[in-house]
Design a protein that fits this description.
The chain is an alpha/beta fold and about 250 residues long. The chain has a domain of about 160 residues: P-loop containing nucleotide triphosphate hydrolases (Rossmann fold). The protein has ten helices and ten strands. A six-stranded mixed β-sheet has the order 6-7-8-3-9-10, sandwiched between helices. About 40% of the residues are buried.
Length: about 250
Amino acid sequence: MALLEISDLAVDYGRIRALSGVSLSVREGEIATVLGANGAGKSTLLRAVIGTARAAQGGIRFAGSEITRTPPHARLAQGIVLVPEGRRILISLTIEENLRLGAHLRRDGAAIQREIEMIYERFPNLAGRRTMAASCLSGGEQQMLAIGRALMAKPRLMMLDEPSLGLSPLFVERLFDLLGELNRDGLTILLVEQNTGKALAAADSATVLELGRVLMAGDPRKLAADPALQAAYLGTAKPAPSPVTTP
Ligand SMILES: Nc1ncnc2c1ncn2[C@@H]1O[C@H](COP(=O)(O)OP(=O)(O)OP(=O)(O)O)[C@@H](O)[C@H]1O
Ligand SMILES: [Mg+2]
C-alpha cells in the first residue's frame, strides 16, 4: 500500500516554478530515495509533504487521506516528520531538551520518558551527555540527535534532507546502518541524498529530479546501472541549474 502518494504536484516560489508535474509514491515499510542536482527541487518536495510549501497544483495523500490542504502541525500529528537539511538542533539546549522538543505535540509523559530511554539505548553517545548542551556534540552526533528528536514524534514516515552532508565517512556508515535498522523495525523512510551511491544501495525505490521534474524513477539497482544517471549524478556535483520561470 502507498503510505505517501504525490500526484502531479507543482510548487511555486513567487514566479519561480520549483516543482512541476511531480508524481511519486512511497510504499509502507520501504526506503524511498529522491536524488537530483543542486536546485532540482528535492527540499521543496519535502516541504510540500510537511506542508510548509503550498501545492499550486496536484495533490498529496497520506495513509489514504487527502492532506494537500492540511496544515503542517496536523500533518506532524499524523506522523509525517522531517529531519531538515543542516539538522537544526538547538545547540544551546541540552540533548534531552532537544529530544523532548520532538515530542511537543504529545501529552503521554510516561511513554515519552520510556522512549527517551530507548533513544539513549540506540545512541549511547547521547546518553552520557543528556544534561549537556547539544553544542558539545560533533556534527555526526548532532545528526543522530536530530534523528532521535524526529523519532520522538512517533513518525509513520520519516523524511531526511541530505543527512550525510558534511559527515565523516565513519558517521556516514553509521547513519546508513541506522536508517536500515529503523526501516527493519518498520519505519517508512523518504531519503533525499547527495550521496547517490549509498542512497541507491539502501533504497527500495528511487526518483531522480531535474529542474523540478521527475527525470527517472524505479528500481534503484537499475538506476545505479544507468549510464546517463552515472554520468550526471554519480560523478562530481554539477553546478546549480537556472530555475524554470512560470509563463
Ligand atoms: N524560498 C525560496 N524562494 C525562492 N526560490 C526558492 C526558494 N527555495 C528554493 N527556491 C528555488 O527552487 C528551486 C528548488 O530548490 P530546492 O531547494 O528545493 O532544491 P534542492 O534540490 O533541495 O537543492 P540542494 O541540493 O541545493 O539542496 C531552486 O531553483 C531554488 O533556487
Ligand atoms: Mg535541498
